[in-house]
UniProtKB/TrEMBL annotation:
Comp. bias (Basic and acidic residues): 1-10
Protein name: N-acetyltransferase domain-containing protein
Superkingdom of origin: Eukaryota
Residue segments, region Disordered: 1-29
Organism: Xylaria flabelliformis
InterPro entries: Acyl_CoA_acyltransferase (IPR016181)
Length: 582
């Protein structure tokens, strides 16, 4: 992890390029009219911006400019009395590997990314949907979009505090950002900004700093994101956060006195066991009234008592387990970790099933072929064979399905639709343009972008073999047919479909396969195209074109996990995270 080091001494201000600074002057606030302070706002690209040379979108290493530094300094005469540092982060250029890109910038950006957002830079849905963790409930999916302004540091010399200098510094940063971004949300965290000294001997010192932080930012319109440690700001005056009174913003409530977890009958029995005046026979009688070997075991009684309790993070036992498993799925943070997910273990599945009241099957007792057969089972088969449904339930818990409809537990309706559309589009496009009848050399050159998963020798055969070219194209249609039938698009399923249900003459698909072509080369190309057009991992064209169809389908945790799904289908893991520049 890279770390951006800051020198908080006043020497940094003297090194700032003051010739490119915006200057604001105001009264110091003391009785003397001669005392004034200056706010300087400096961004790292001011020299280029002030020149006649257009601002290049890439740095000297060919990397997209992802960040702009904005610093403000307050001066009285030659002395610096306050400063504020912030970073303007271009989220849209970091979508494919948001966590890793933010980690590359600095530790503070990494903290923001991990604590608030998912792998694509979208707000953690707990902070807008969870019963309690949504806090005041004023923030939602709008935080998925636009640039991010991260206030990372504020320092005001003690003698100059309580003079509204902090307010003016942050306001100046926001004003500068309005000229640098077409749309942004600002974020601030007291854990990053304040130097909270827990060893301060002054009574309530930490509480006082925290209170001052909240008052400063809330007075400017910042409001807490759910129950997180971050406050956020939007320029949109009609946004719910701007209508919420400062006093009504969410704060950590005082912890109520803890209630005993053990139910009253158990506490009574425990007291009896320690009471020398109560006989052993009487204790046994009391236990028999509460417990039974078959049903009301001590554990059962406890579980029913705590099932609805919430912990310090406001999670029920089920939510706490789900949160822990999600961390397990995404650590170490980065898209690559999610792509490498292979499912939760049987003990985790059993815990989820117990807490959700779901009947499941022990997957360790089934062969891979049995699981694959159940994965593509029809609704008619499920209605006839009860065990099939319990196996499907177990698979959906194992692979993190949240929609209850994932085929094989991992192929969600939206993912299936995305792959189906790309299979159909590629079949139509390759059939019509430039057309199979054009010269082999032209066809291969014009379609080089879809042939990347084929060995060089096979691509050379495509130049001279029209039948192979048609077989490659037809394979797109075979994959589409399997997806329409709600079957997994793995090699074995697709080959079974081709051999059992396709009547093809001449046998162009067989010719393609016999001469070195593979199902995987076509399937991985379809995954690539789906990623490139995805709403979050790609350019968003898929949502633009098919929004009405997509919005009719349920959402699922697995909707955009292309690397995970491609590997589960038996193909080389198609990485979503990429350092290729957009």
């Amino acid at each position: 992890m890279s770390t951006a080091k800051r020198d908080h001494s006043s020497s940094d201000a003297s090194e700032s390029p003051a010739t490119h600074a915006k200057v604001v002057k105001t009264s110091h606030g003391y009785d003397s009219d001669e005392v004034q302070f200056t706010v300087e706002i400096n961004s790292q690209d001011d020299e280029l911006e002030d020149s006649d040379v257009p601002m290049p979108p890439f740095d000297g290493f060919g990397k997209q400019r992802l960040m702009k530094q904005i610093n403000c300094f307050a001066n009285v005469g030659q002395n610096q009395v306050a400063e504020c540092n912030a970073k303007l982060l271009r989220r849209e250029h970091m979508r494919r590997d948001f966590w890793a890109e933010m980690d590359e910038l600095c530790d503070e950006a990494s903290s923001l990314a991990i604590e608030l957002f998912d792998r694509y830079g979208r707000l953690n849905r707990e902070y807008c949907e969870h019963e309690i963790r949504k806090g005041s409930g004023v923030w939602g999916e709008e935080l998925d979009h636009d640039d991010i302004l991260m206030i990372e540091y504020i320092n005001i010399e003690p003698l100059w505090r309580r003079q509204k200098i902090g307010t003016k510094l942050v306001s100046a940063v926001l004003d500068k950002t309005r000229h640098e971004s077409t749309g942004f949300f600002a974020f601030a965290s007291q854990r990053l900004i304040l130097d909270l000294d827990c060893n301060d001997e002054r009574p309530n010192a930490v509480h006082e700093q925290s209170k001052n932080f909240n008052h400063l930012f809330r007075s400017l319109g910042f409001r807490r994101v759910g129950t997180s440690g971050w406050l956020a700001f939007t320029d949109n005056d009609s946004h719910p956060s701007r209508q919420l009174d400062e006093a009504h913003d969410w704060d950590v409530p005082e912890q109520p006195k803890e209630e005993p977890i053990a139910p009253v009958p158990i506490r009574t029995i425990l007291s009896s066991l320690y009471d020398p005046s109560i006989s052993g026979a009487e204790c046994v009688c009391q236990m028999e009234e509460v417990f039974s070997v078959e049903e009301n075991t001590p554990l059962w009684v406890y579980v029913n008592k705590i099932a609805g309790k919430r912990n310090a993070d406001y999670y029920t036992p089920l939510e706490a387990l789900q949160s822990s498993l999600e961390l397990q799925r995404t650590k170490p943070y980065g898209g690559g970790a999610s792509d490498r997910f292979i499912g939760f273990c049987q003990s985790d599945i059993a815990c989820l099933a117990a807490l959700t009241g779901t009947e499941i099957f022990d997957l360790t007792k089934l062969s891979d072929r049995d699981i694959w057969t159940v994965s593509s089972a029809t609704d008619e088969m499920v209605s006839r064979i009860r065990a099939v449904d319990t196996i499907r339930n177990a698979l959906r818990l194992k692979y993190g399905c949240t929609c209850g409809q994932c085929i094989g537990g991992f192929l969600s309706p939206r993912m299936r639709f995305a792959l189906l559309c790309q299979a159909e589009i590629q079949y139509d496009t390759l059939s019509e343009f430039p057309g199979i009848d054009c010269s082999g050399q032209d066809w291969v050159e014009l379609n080089y972008h879809v042939l990347g998963h084929l060995p060089r020798a096979v691509k050379e055969n495509l130049v001279t073999n029209k039948s192979m070219r048609q077989g490659f194209v037809n394979m797109c249609n075979h994959i589409a047919c399997c997806l329409r039938k709600k079957q997994l698009p793995d090699t074995e399923t697709i080959l079974d479909f081709y051999q059992e249900e396709v009547s093809e003459w001449p046998p162009v698909t067989s010719n393609y396969l016999e001469r070195g072509g593979t199902v995987a080369a076509v399937a991985m190309m379809i995954f690539d195209r789906a990623i490139d057009s995805d709403e979050w991992a790609g350019d968003g064209t898929f949502m633009e074109i098919f929004a009405d169809n997509i919005n009719q389908l349920p959402t699922c945790r697995n909707d955009h996990e292309f690397g995970f799904v491609s590997s589960m289908c038996g193909y080389e893991r198609t990485p979503v995270a990429s350092y290729t520049e957009f």
